[in-house]
Structures
1.
Amino acid sequence: MLTLRERRPMGRRSMISELERIHNLVENLMGDIFGSMTPSTSTTSTPSNWTWLPPMNMWVENNTLCCEIFVPGINKDQLEVNVTEDTLTISGSFKSPWGEGNTPTFYFYEYPFGSFYRQVTLPFPVNTQNVQAKYENGVLKVTLPLTTSNPQGHKVKIS
């Protein structure tokens, strides 16, 4: 038996509340799956345990696999690059400007800090012994020469 329900138009306030509820549900789901970089816009919180992933670009140019990762405000000494025959791992840490225990309660926050860890599977074999990394103006650029053989992995020095 089919029951019909009367549909009443939603008021502007109830529509906004419903959209905020849906937004928070999706944000919580994505945070559970991928980690959250920012707090919910409807609550206040402190960013002390947030996880974040800096944006990354990867492309092939002149027989070299190039990777750029956007990490402004981090010293190159706080970054680490490791490469194996089939993975590139970039990790680092951006310290809180407020120090331990002094973090204020935020009402709006988009500037992440804390540790990050990016590991990507390389789409092509690379010569791991000739990988270079350069950090300049908040962008870490890693160049990985393409090859047909796979030497042992190693830690890459950042210049």
2.
Amino acid sequence: MEQQEKRKLALVTGGSGAIGQAICVALAQAGHEVWVHANRNLAQAEAVAGTIRAVGGRAHAIAFDVTDADATDAALRRILADGPVQILVNNAGIHDDAPMVGMTREQWRSVIDVSLNGFFNVTQPLLMPMMRTRWGRIVSMASVAALMGNRGQANYAAAKAGLIAATRSLSIEMASRGVTVNAVAPGIVESPMIGQAFPVERIRQLVPAGRAGSAQEVAAMVAYLVSDAAAYVTGMA
């Protein structure tokens, strides 16, 4: 793989999913060493890491539950044994949709737990090692639902809106240490489920480009935000 920048150690949570895979590949193509995270499906994370290694990149797989603070700490200690993580992409997230009138407590709690508490559990332990290097990039995957709302997604919108607010606050705290903190809020992105949720006609109504985005297009934005070229970009959502 072509190395474009000095190699950094990167962690991508939810790296075994469609968007996460694309991000992992993009970071590896930029010359970084990537840890591909999964929750339970370690085999899928291993497959992503194997694909990267097959074309000359450096990648490893790891599985842990971001909502379990102790398990997360243990996993991060393993990663930090290789050096400080200087690129963190918080991509882990779930949705469990229902109108709020029929939403269960578990639906509300679980979605917020992964996206928001998971963000804290992963990010906070990595901040001090990152700060010591005087260079860092943190990118979290939000959603347009956080900005516009979406029927049946009060829990998801609340979690992602909280993530954006946390991103802006953390960016202020970290700016003097050479660490940027940004959030990306993708719109409709191609996936196996998209046809059921968003028919082609609906996408054309909602999206100025008239089509869904691709995971690779999202990954390209993340790759820019973690690059040296984006050193002045922080607090963006």
3.
Amino acid sequence: MNSNSWLEKLKTNKTFGRFYGITLLLFIAFLFWAFFKILTPGNFGNPAALSNYFLSSIIYSVGGCGLYFIVVMGMFDFSIGANIVLSSIVGVIASSHFGYPGLLIGSIVCGTLIGFLNGTIYIRLKIPSMIVTVGLMLIFESVAYFVASGKKQTLDAGLRAFGKAPASIILAGIAFLLTAFILRYTKIGTYCYAIGSNEYVARNMGINVDKYKRIGFILTHFFVGIMAVLTVSYGWSMTAITGMESMGRNFTPLMGTFFGIAFRKYGTPVTAIIIGEFIIAIIFNGFIALGAPTTIQNVVTGAALLIIVTLTSRPEKGAVVK
């Protein structure tokens, strides 16, 4: 047995594979940190800054966990950003009457209902999810503008605990553990993977594909509702936007989902999403420290993401799926 085949077998071992995947991700994070630290040693990457990078990145990690449920089935949802805006606004308005319960329940219930609506319309219309959710994005943006009466909604100063540690970490941690549990120990996770692998075979196996696609959308937006709580708590306010401006909020959570998909073969999708979003936060803040224009930041970040996903998503025989 040559060294390459021995390494491949070791990497697909359940225990070592997870260790290998996490170590690889941490090494990538270290490389980017070291790169920007060398270029801007005075204003980048100290312990306090890294803590801030992580606290901001876990917001997107929660959304990335939600998106994982539909992306792994081969779908996508362009209304994520609009839902973040609408659910944040609903949560802020509810919090003004009911405090923290209003913020949590208002945002999460609003997000979950949008997921149910998206899944139902997608299944009924039987057209690509991207097309359906672009139309719904425009509708949700308008609804958010109407609910907010065109005004910025500001979260009360006494209700911002979820914008900082430890409350933000606790809420995000609950979301991460719930995602891992669903993927590993429930039929939902098993069937999501089965549908994503081969929808035709999944149907022939007796899986109700439409049912689990709807559940996938519901779970996605349930976690987006949690992301909305973290987002508005971190930024303190939310303004309704129209004309597809909310679309920009879709892509950072999606980047984390790509990491989860790429490292799924090591059995670490949730961990990969968390560390992947942290890597993205390091890159963004590194370019800010360099004073690079936003366009350059986007180009290099996108290129780095493509390279990382390409290098880590090559198929391997016997890879760990769950």
4.
Amino acid sequence: MKKKPLATALAALLTVPSAAAIAAGQSTGFVENNSPTGDAVVDASFNPYAKGMPTSPGYTPGVTINKENVEKYKDILDPGMYLVIKNGWYQVQTKPTFSEMLPKSYRDATKADYKNVKVDAKTGQLDGYVAGRPFPEEPSLKDPAAGLKLAWNFQRGLNWGDNGTINPFIFQYKDMKSGKVERVINIEYHTLNYKHRFENTPIPDITPNPSNVFRSIYLKVNSPDDVRNTQLLIQRYDDDRKLDDTYLYLGFQRRVRRLPSAQTTDSFLGSDLMIQDFEGYNDRVAAMKWTYKGTKNVLIPLYRHNELKLSSEFPQSNGYKFVAFGGQGGCFPEITWQLRKVYELEAVPVDSGSPISKRIFFVDAQTGALARTLIYDRKGSLWKNWIIGKTDPDYQLAGNKGSGIPIDDSFSMVDLESQHCTTGQFEGQINPKLSPERMFQVQYMRDSGGGN
């Protein structure tokens, strides 16, 4: 696979589409929540399995789906996983479905505020939102704003909670044909929600916040030496129409550069990922036109980390072990999958210059996670297969137990056209002390980098 020179890749890290996006095809005015059953709709949203787990004819949890039997299970596989298994690149080990209840504080925040939440179909912006899941009602194909509402449910979703940390966060670049590991990068990754907080004080907002920042991401590369101390700070505003502010610190230059916008669809450090791929989708709601395509039962990578056969790679001083990888080229996580209720959501870039024609997300109905994503190139062909494996927090690090926050635990981004992949192994932690507010300031980048 042809790679950009390092300096070029770094300098072009962060730009977002210049077009201001509006949810096209909507009527003007407000589309309001409609909940004739009151708060029962919230309970149903967070516990879709109250009356039983999802089933599918001929499917029994525990089966291994492989090239030989894949046709039998085609109906519960998304098109990307069907293709991967049919080609013999990977086999899926299934387990019984379990309910993954999100924190009571997040559910309570939803109940307190959701009746006041509206989305302006002309601008696509939220009105009346404080915290929790903005639109807990079941989406309907008859609702022209259903896709937009699902997008906002993710954008204001639980994700890492009020604060999150991945350290270490190990990227491996691999040739899918040979399995050769071409590069290993060790990163630390931190998030902080300034607004719409539900768990850690202050609630709901950190003040003062004169710029009205909603959320920040801070990333630092710890190795190898040629990119060590590269740092990235993204500040996303509560006003979704406003472009992110992005700052880049290059270790070899020892200075911070402010970038006017972020190029989310360029390769991140020469990997198979774009900035837009982070956490499932890392961009503004306004950058896409959203369409709800229906509800179905699909196999999703949600599991219990401590019950897996784990890797002996990259031993940690605390004894933590990462998810192992196997399959074709070592490109696929050796994890378990379960049948879950999902919403199929299509996102078409508003920017006509995007290399992507669309993304298809399979949104987990209970957690709101984007664990499965298909990315299509400009010709409309399936380009990338994106897996984010999540673990139940009670079966990973002891410090995450009881948090109720599903933990990002592994990833696989496979470029089907170039037969190349980037894999990720996480040590994810829910601990606000690891992501202090000072970390999300430009001065911290200078101090952490070793000078101006």
